[in-house]
Amino acid sequence: MKNKAITSRTEDFARWYDDVVRAAKLATYSGVKGCVILEPNGYAIWENIQKTLDGMFKETGHQNVNMPVFIPESLLMKEAEHVEGFAPEVAWITHGGHNELEERLCFRPTSETLFSEYYANTVKSHRDLPKLYNQWVNVCRWEKETRPFLRSREFLWQEGHTIHETAKEAEEETLRMLMVYKKFFEEYLAIPAIVGQKTEKEKFAGAEYTYTIEALMYNGVSLQSGTSHYFGQKFSKPFNITFSNKNNELEYVYQTSWGVSTRMIGGLIMVHSDDNGLVLPPKIAPRQVAIVPIKMEENVMAKAEEILAKLSAAGITAFIDRSDKSPGFKFAEHETNGIPVRIEIGPKDMEANQLTVARRDTREKMVISLDEDIVKYVQDLMENIQNNLFEAAKKRRDELTFTATNMEEFEKIMRTQPGFVKAMWCGDEDCELKIKEIRGTKSRCIPFEEEQEHISDTCVCCGKPAKTMVVWGIQY
Amino acid sequence: MKNKAITSRTEDFARWYDDVVRAAKLATYSGVKGCVILEPNGYAIWENIQKTLDGMFKETGHQNVNMPVFIPESLLMKEAEHVEGFAPEVAWITHGGHNELEERLCFRPTSETLFSEYYANTVKSHRDLPKLYNQWVNVCRWEKETRPFLRSREFLWQEGHTIHETAKEAEEETLRMLMVYKKFFEEYLAIPAIVGQKTEKEKFAGAEYTYTIEALMYNGVSLQSGTSHYFGQKFSKPFNITFSNKNNELEYVYQTSWGVSTRMIGGLIMVHSDDNGLVLPPKIAPRQVAIVPIKMEENVMAKAEEILAKLSAAGITAFIDRSDKSPGFKFAEHETNGIPVRIEIGPKDMEANQLTVARRDTREKMVISLDEDIVKYVQDLMENIQNNLFEAAKKRRDELTFTATNMEEFEKIMRTQPGFVKAMWCGDEDCELKIKEIRGTKSRCIPFEEEQEHISDTCVCCGKPAKTMVVWGIQY
Questions:
Q1: Which of A415, A451, B15, B279 is 20 to 30 A from B286 (CA-CA)?
Q2: Burial (CB count <10 Å: 0-12, 13-18, 19+), residue B33
């Protein structure tokens, strides 16, 4: 039985996405142009993401802070490439109350400039280093299009900002945090991730280089899902962030930043969900188990309560659906909302000493004995679902990962069934621009050495000798 | 030994406050005018506050959401009293990128208008009610003065927003959440709180009435620490938030909102801290126990590790200070930072089979045997500190709570040692304005019936028959 409120994923992916977001009550368009309201089911996923990632940041020695949301225009202007990259898409505050401001302020699109000013005022000696900060905040980029979780003028994210004594330490940090993201994507979001370096053209405005984590959606479109930037001394020089090193010489610090956003929720939806609505990996699902009593009879409810107590005691997030809707309606609702496991129990089950367990990912139903250890059963099942979702996503990604050695092959892939395309590149930006003419295809990343493959000797575009393999894709 | 970086509290309270904020590295002024940077030690307190309060909100059935940060001018204008109250202090966004906006947007000073629009679009039937929402966000009010945690143009808070079928339910919610705040203040922040209703003059712009939670600082100045508003149908009518009730008639919803902010951290400082720096109640301290090895010798470190493991296993947040500073320096630093309990252990202690425990609140030191159950000892001590801080704050507040029956008495109190003044009031705003002439004294609240006292028959100001007792105070 297909959910009629949801367009088929194969028929119209964009409408399917909007339908899932609406049907699972994750988010809704707001009356404020370009802005989105995160509804309880959507925000709860963000809370779980925050809790897990925040723990990982703290384990790696980072501390949370909170910088101002406003950046004076003169501060934003201090690093030339940075301002050039961001000025076209910032929102400007020009009035406070009834008065015009002497200097206009932008709503932070990112906070390198604010952290840099703070570092310059507080860091003096190598003993003050490293500084390993993070903040969970809202940022604003004046986008034209709006799609919940993928693109909106205001969005929620975390931005890590660190400074170090040496280039080596800062470069290690840049890589470390990329790998934290990769671990989080694979182990929690069950999304296989490609990591690597952005090309010069695609790197962050103001960075020496940018690492990126790229995921492939069900429809073969890529999603840039997180980035980690190495700044070297590109901010520390104009902002004059100096420290006296171990030889008592004044030196500029080495800097990084890294971030992921609510966009990851868009990725979760487009990788795992189906025509029946949301599918969530158990490790990130706000509610893991729905217990549905088929009839609200005393012995059924007592059993439901007993199961709830056992699951809760084991740290599983479960609830009993006591609403007066029909069981069929409840089943559909919990499927739409992506609750990984459903337990059904009714008077007949009680007589037969059994209950039914339904898993959301495959929609299989299993009948098990009431004598079975339900906690262990659910724990094993959730582990199985978590792994199954990852494997299915990986299989899909591998099926949609192609190679091309010339532009004809390249274009044919992108015009029929797009995906990741591995192809060689000469290193010239002109070739990137030419490839972009194919449905906006961009270089996703230059994979690290161990992931490099030799697809051909020559650049897929110009035919000159190739320097490296690049993964290309159409992007959100 | 007094901390020399901190001005004496009795000598200059304002400087003492700034010194404690700086010395304990809680927050610092930012280069962005009117804005403050929350540093790791300060933000960690906010994280603990959030975690605890968020749990209390969820226990009372609330769900977190996230509304846009922008409010179009026309939306803000919909409720007349509300816009009149907030328009003078909002920040206006007028440009996005290089383009002027067709309609300017304000940075939310509070979000009643955004929630109201959302309710109007989503609520249809009494089955959709109640809606019990909360959000943890930044807001902006264009203040002239700046003081960390007390007053800044941007600050962090939570705002609860709910709608209900009946006035009775909404009024119960307004009171319920005030009482949640009171419980949190008394049991976690160890701050005794007076609750009651704001006068018409002091209520929230757009509310039918406002409940408030008021605390008294060490210097006798009051701090409005949280508010809970009953709106009745004052927003639901202009925003057209209707639902079909059980008789299938269209009706306007009844609405509430309630909020507390990082201002509570200012309260924590000004109620508990002393000339040696920050003092934190154990239940809200990000780090509860500092273990200081007097010498980094093997058997000392092994014992420190053993104690750390035991405390951590019991859910106590402890750490070993392994830095190469001198023990005396470490003691002073942990005192300044307000860590409730310090454990000192050195080679001589090991020989004598003992260790030293220091409590931050009274600065007492206790020598205890290594055979003692350290976990139980620390748990009992922290409970003792928590209670002691509450009792000391309550004693101080009671000492600084006065009564006045005429303006001469009233003025004398406020000009010598201010505090809470209980005095009768006729209900006339003119008397409030007259009382305000005494160092800006305002009505803090009209306490609930059970806290009412009969101080005199007549209004403290005009001498006409009194209607009610009011608690008055000078405010931050």
A1: B15
A2: middle
CB contact under 8 A, B68 and A30: yes
How many whole angstroms separate alpha carbon B43 and alpha carbon B39?
A: 6
DSSP string, A151-217: B-SEEEEEEEEEEESSHHHHHHHHHHHHHHHHHHHHHTS----EEEE--TTTS-TT-SEEEEEEEE-
CATH number assigned to the domain covering B401-473: 3.30.110.30
Nearest to A255 by CA among A389, A357, A159: A159
Domain boundaries in chain B?
13-272, 289-381, 401-473
Contact state of A156 with B66 under an 8 Å Cβ cutoff = yes
Closest CA to A246 of A122, A125, A123, A121: A125
- Cβ–Cβ < 8 Å for B279, B360: yes
> Is pTM beyond 0.90 here?
yes
Per-residue pLDDT of chain A (476 residues; tens, 9 = 90+): 567 889 999 999 999 999 999 999 999 999 999 999 999 999 999 999 999 999 999 999 999 999 999 999 999 999 888 888 888 899 999 999 999 999 999 999 999 999 999 999 999 999 999 999 999 999 999 998 999 999 999 999 999 999 999 999 999 999 999 999 999 999 999 999 999 999 999 999 999 999 999 999 999 999 999 999 999 999 999 999 999 999 999 999 999 999 999 999 999 999 999 999 999 999 999 999 999 999 999 999 999 999 999 999 999 999 999 998 999 999 999 999 999 999 999 999 999 999 999 999 999 999 999 999 999 999 999 999 999 999 999 999 999 999 999 999 999 999 999 999 999 999 999 999 999 999 999 999 999 999 999 999 999 999 999 999 999 999 99
Predicted ipTM of the assembly: 0.96
| Binding-face residues of B in 407-466 toward A, CB within 8 A | none
CA dist B237 and A108 (Å) reads: 36
- In contact, B397 and B450? CB cutoff 8 Å: no
Exposure of A409 by Cβ count < 10 A (0-12 exposed, 13-18 middle, 19+ buried)? middle
Residue with tokens 């392994």: B322
Nearest residue, CB atoms, B93 vs list A30, A64, A107: A107
* pLDDT tens profile B203-252: 999 999 999 999 999 999 999 999 999 999 999 999 999 999 999 999 99
Contacts of B373 (CB under 8 A, 6+ apart): none
Q: Which of A39, A90, A117 has its CB closest to that of B31?
A: A117
pLDDT in tens, B258-312: 999 999 999 999 999 999 999 999 999 999 999 999 999 999 999 999 999 999 9
The answer to whether the peptide bond before residue A40 is cis (omega within 30 degrees of 0) is no
The CA distance from A313 to the nearest CA of chain B, in Å, is 17
Residue that the structure tokens 């509300």 belong to: B82
- Asked if the Cβ–Cβ distance from B66 to A121 is below 8 Å, we say no
* Chain-chain contact of A70 with B31 (C-beta, under 8 angstroms): no
Q: Chain A residues with CB inside 8 Å of B323's CB?
A: none
Q: In the sheet that A318-320 helps form, which strands lie side by side, from edge to edge?
A: A318-320, A289-293, A341-345, A354-359, A365-369
Judging by DSSP bridges, how do beta strands B365-369 and B354-359 pair with one another?
antiparallel
Quick check: A40 and B70 CB within 8 A?
no
> Could you tell me which CATH number the domain at B289-381 has?
3.40.50.800
State whether B37 and A118 contact (CB < 8 Å). yes
Minimal C-alpha gap between B462 and chain A (Å): 36
Residues of A in contact with B106 (CB under 8 A): none
Fold of B13-272: BirA Bifunctional Protein; domain 2 (3.30.930)
Any chain A CB within 8 A of the CB of B69?
Answer: yes
Report CB contact under 8 Å: A93, B91: yes
Query: Do the Cβ atoms of B467 and B426 come closer than 8 Å?
Result: yes
